[in-house]
Amino acid sequence: MDGLILNTEDLYTIGFQKIASRYGKEFTFDLKCRIMGQQTREFAASIINGLDLPLTVDEFLKETRFIYEELFPQSKIMPGVETLIRHLCDNGIPIGLATSSSKETYDLKVKNHSELFDMLKYKTWGSSDPLVKKGKPYPDIFLVAADKFPDKPAPEKVLVFEDSINGVKAAHSAGMQVVMIPDPRLDRSLAPEATLILNSMVDFKPELFGLPPYTQPK
C-alpha cells in the first residue's frame, strides 16, 4: 500500500524527520530504504537505533501517532493504480492488499479512498495480523495474504506489486512474481529478485502476466 498505491511514503518521511530534527538528526533516504516494508515496531526500532534517538519504541510510536493523524488523511492515489484496480475487478481477477501497516494506521490512510480500497477484497495488515510472524523481507505476509483467496493459489500463480527492496525480497522468498515500482532515487541493482521494474504503474501491461489487456487507453 505505502508508496505503491498511496503516496504515504512521502508522508512517513515528513513525520520521521519531524521527530529526528528534535534531536539534531536526519532521516536519510538510505535509512528509509532499509525500513520500508517492516512492521510497525520493527521500523520504529530500526529508526531509533539508526539515528541513536533517546526514545523507546512505544515513545516513538506515540509521537508518530499524533503526526499521522494529521498527515495520513492527506494521502493521494499513485498514478495508474486506480485504473489497474478497476480493470482487474471488472475482469473478475481476485486481488487483495498485503500491507505492513496496522489496521489503525490503514484506517487513517484510506479515510478518503474507501471506495477504491473496498475493491481489494482480501486484506492483510502485517502489524495487526497474528499469523504474520515476521515482517518483510520475510515471506510471511504474502503467504498469509494469498491464503485468503478462495482458490488458495500456488505461489507461482500470484503476482505481487511492490515499491521496496524488502517487499521484493519477501515476494521472491514466497515464490511469487513481483513487479517493482520504486522511488526514482533507488538503485535498481539492489532489487535483482524483481521480475520486472517499472517507473510507474501507468507503464504496467497486464497481458505480460497473462492478465486481460486494457481495452482502451489508460
Automatic annotation (TrEMBL):
<keyword id="KW-0378">Hydrolase</keyword>
<comment type="similarity">
    <text>Belongs to the HAD-like hydrolase superfamily. CbbY/CbbZ/Gph/YieH family.</text>
</comment>
<dbReference type="InterPro" id="IPR006439">
    <property type="entry name" value="HAD-SF_hydro_IA"/>
</dbReference>
<dbReference type="InterPro" id="IPR023214">
    <property type="entry name" value="HAD_sf"/>
</dbReference>
<dbReference type="InterPro" id="IPR036412">
    <property type="entry name" value="HAD-like_sf"/>
</dbReference>
<dbReference type="InterPro" id="IPR023198">
    <property type="entry name" value="PGP-like_dom2"/>
</dbReference>
<protein>
    <recommendedName>
        <fullName>pseudouridine 5'-phosphatase</fullName>
        <ecNumber>3.1.3.96</ecNumber>
    </recommendedName>
</protein>
<dbReference type="GO" id="GO:0046872">
    <property type="term" value="F:metal ion binding"/>
</dbReference>
<dbReference type="Pfam" id="PF00702">
    <property type="entry name" value="Hydrolase"/>
</dbReference>
<keyword id="KW-0460">Magnesium</keyword>
<keyword id="KW-0479">Metal-binding</keyword>
<dbReference type="GO" id="GO:1990738">
    <property type="term" value="F:pseudouridine 5'-phosphatase activity"/>
</dbReference>
